[in-house]
Amino acid sequence: MTQTAETTAKDVWSDGRHVLTASSTRAHKKCPYLYYLQYVLGIRPAIEEQALRFGKAWHRCLELLAGGQSVEQVVAQIDQWYAQCPTHVELTDWHVERETLAAAISAYDWFWKIDPAQVEACEQTFNLPIVNPETGAASTKWRMAGKIDKRVRRGERLLVREHKSSSADLSPQSDYWLQKRLDSQISFYVLAGRQLAGVAGVDYDVFRKPQIRPSMLTQGETKAFVQSGEYCGDRFDVYVATDLDGGPMVSVDTIVADVKLGAAPKPTKANPNPEQPFAIRETPAMFGARLVQTICAEPARYFARQEIARTELDLEQFRHELWAQMQAINDQTLSGRFFRNENACLQKGDKKCPYCSICWFGCEVRISDDGSIIEDLPDGFEIKPFMHEELLSDSSESD
After folding, report:
1. Mean pLDDT of the chain
2. How far apart are CA 317 and CA 180, in angstroms?
C-alpha cells in the first residue's frame, strides 16, 4: 500500500477527534456546532472557498522558495497548478487568481531577497500533550498539534515564522496588529515552539491581497497599447481583426480582450470612413503586469513582518484557557450537545458561514455508534476521513 499524507497523519493521530489545533480551537470559539460539524463529524464543503484556496497556494509558493527553488521555478509551478480551470470557477477569475499569485510571489521574492533571518526548519509538525496548569498532569485523552511554517534564527533569537495572506490594512498602527496581541494561534505556536526549541516569539509575515481587478483602458491607452504592444513594462503580441459584426476584435497573446466601442465617428470629406474608436479591458496577463508595478511601487503596503512576543505570563494564561476549552469540548463531545452561535452565521460583507444550509434548514446530522453518518448530507458537502487537513503535508492553515 502506498503511504500518503493522510494515512501518515492517521497513523499518528488516528481520526483526529481528540486532537486540538489552532484551527479547531478557533472554530470552537466561533461556534461550537461549527466545531462539531468540522472536527467531530468531519464534514467539509465539497468546493473550497477562494480565500482558502489562495491561502494554501500562497503557502505552497513560500515552501518552494524556502526549499531553494528560484522564483521562475515557482511561477512555472503555479502555471501547472492553474492549467485546468475547475467547472465551478469562472475562467477569467481563475486566470486572474493565477496572475495575482504569480505577481505576488515575484514581488515578495524581490522585496524580501535580503532576509536577516536564517531558516532552520520548514513545515515542522508537532504533537504535544495538553497539560493541566494547576497540577502539571497531562491529559490522557487530548493532545495539541499543528504545523509550524518555519523556524528562523535572527541573531541570538529563535522565532516561529508564521505566513499569512490577508485583506486587512497592514500599516504598523492598524488594528490588525493590535488584535495579534490576543491571537490564540500565536500563543498556540509559541507554546509549542518553546517546548520544542526554546523559541522567543513569532515572526509574523503577511501579504496583503490586492483589492484591484482587471480594468478598462481608455481609448487613448488602448490605441497606444495596440501600436506598441507595451504595457506596464511588459511586451505583448497584439493583433486586431474584425469580428462577424464588423467591429474590432483584439487578441493579446492569443487571448481575446473585452472591447467597448466608443461613439461612432462622423465621416468627413477628408476622412469619409473613420475608424471606430474602442477601448479594451485588461486581459489577465496585462492585469498581472500592472499588479507587479502596483505592488513594487508600494511594497510596504502589501508586505509586512512584525515580531510578536509572548511573555511567560501570557503563556500561563493561555495554558489555562486551552485547558478550559479542552474541558468544554470534552464535555460537549461526551454529551453530544454542541450549541449553535447564531451570531457567527453572517460574516464580513455578504459572506456567510458555509454550513448555514445545514443549520438554517434543520438538517440533523449525527454520528452513529459504528462511526457512520446516519443522516444524508445536503448537496455541496463531503465527509473527510481525517479531521485536521492542516496537518497533512500538502495542506496549510490560512487566514
Report:
1. 89
2. 15
